Amino acid sequence: MFNLFKKKTPVESCVAVSEKAEKSVSDFISVTAHQLKTPFTSIKWAIELMQKGEMGPLTEDQKILLDKMYSSTLHASRLISEMLNAYRLESGSSVFDFELADDLADVLKRSIEEIRPLAENKKIVIETEISSELPTNLYIDHDKIEDVFQILLENAIKYTNAGGKILVKFALNKDGAVFSFADSGIGISKESQVNIFKKFFRTYRANEKEHDGSGLGLFIAKSIVERHQGQISFQSEENKGSTFFVTLPFGEKIK
Ligand code: ADP
Fold first, then answer.
1. Would you tell me which of 100, 130, 155, 215 could form a disulfide with 202, CB atoms 3.0–4.6 Å apart?
2. What is the CATH number of domain 10-91?
3. CATH 3.30.565.10 fits 99-249, yes or no
C-alpha cells in the first residue's frame, strides 16, 4: 500500500514498455488473423467449385495450377487458425471444457490412427506401447489434448527422414498420466533448445526441411498442457532424434 506511488526503476519501466509492446503486437496479429479468415474461406470455396468443373471444363495445366492454389490456401488458412488459437490461449480467452479422462488411451490411439497415413507416405513406422489402465481422477479438455497429440505426432513425422521410426508410449504413474513421443529424426541443436517453445521459433534446419511450419505448434501445445496443470518437456540430440514428454496430473476437475 505504501509503495503505491513508488517510482519504477529503469529496468521495471523497460519491462513494462516491452510487455505493452508485445501485447499490442499480439492484439494486432489477432485482429489481422480474424479479418483474413473470411476472405480465405471464400477463396477456398471458389477454388473447390472450379476444381469440381462447375465453372466449365479445365485443361490439365489449369488443374495443376488450381491444385497448387488450393494447397497454398489450405496452408494460409491453417496459419491463420494457429495464430488465432495461440492468441486465445495466451490472452486466456480460450474456453476449456474439462471432463473425466476415462478414455485417455483411446484419445491417443485415435490421434495416431488419424496421422498414420501421413507417416506411411514417408515410410515412417509408428510403434506404440499404450497401457490400457484408465485414470479415475484425471480431467482433460478432450479436443485440446487431441490437438497436443496431433502437434507432437505431426512434428515427429515432419522432422524425421523417410524410413525413420516413431515410438509413442502412454502409462499411468503415481502422480498422473505420462506420454512420450520419440522419433529418430533430425533432432534439435543445443543452441536452439532454449527457444523451442517460444512463439514463431523455428530452427534453421526446420526452415530448410519444411517450409510450411509456423513455429506456433509447440507454443500452443505448451499452453494447453499447462492449463491442465501438466508439464511438457523434451530431450533431443542433433541427427539422433527427439523425445517429447507430456505429463497430466491426477486431481480434481480444473475450474
Ligand atoms: P513448426 O513445426 O510449425 O515449425 P512448432 O512450434 O511445432 O512449429 O515447432 C517449433 C520448432 O521446433 C520446429 O520448427 C522445429 O525446428 C523444432 N521441432 C519441433 N518438433 C521437433 C522434432 N520432433 N524434431 C526436430 N525438431 C523439432
1. 215
2. 1.10.287.130
3. yes
Q: What is the pLDDT of residues 54-109, one digit of tens each?
A: 999 999 999 999 999 999 999 899 999 999 999 999 999 899 999 999 999 999 99
User: What is the reported pTM?
Assistant: 0.86
Binding site membership of 214 for ligand 1 (Cβ less than 6 Å): yes
Contact 230 CB / ligand 1 (< 6 Å): no
Q: Where do the CATH 1.10.287.130 domains begin and end in the chain?
A: 10-91
Distance CA 242, CA 203 (A): 14
Name the segment(s) of the chain with CATH classification 3.30.565.10.
Answer: 99-249
- Amino acid letter for position 17: V
**8-state DSSP, 132:** -
**How close are the terminal C-alpha atoms of the chain, in Å?**
30
- Nearest residue to 183 via CA among 115, 116, 241, 245: 241
Tens digit of each residue's pLDDT (9 = 90 or more) over 165-181: 999 999 999 999 999 99
- To test the pocket of ligand 1, the residue of 85, 90, 147, 158 to mutate (highest count of ligand atoms within 8 Å of its CB) is 158
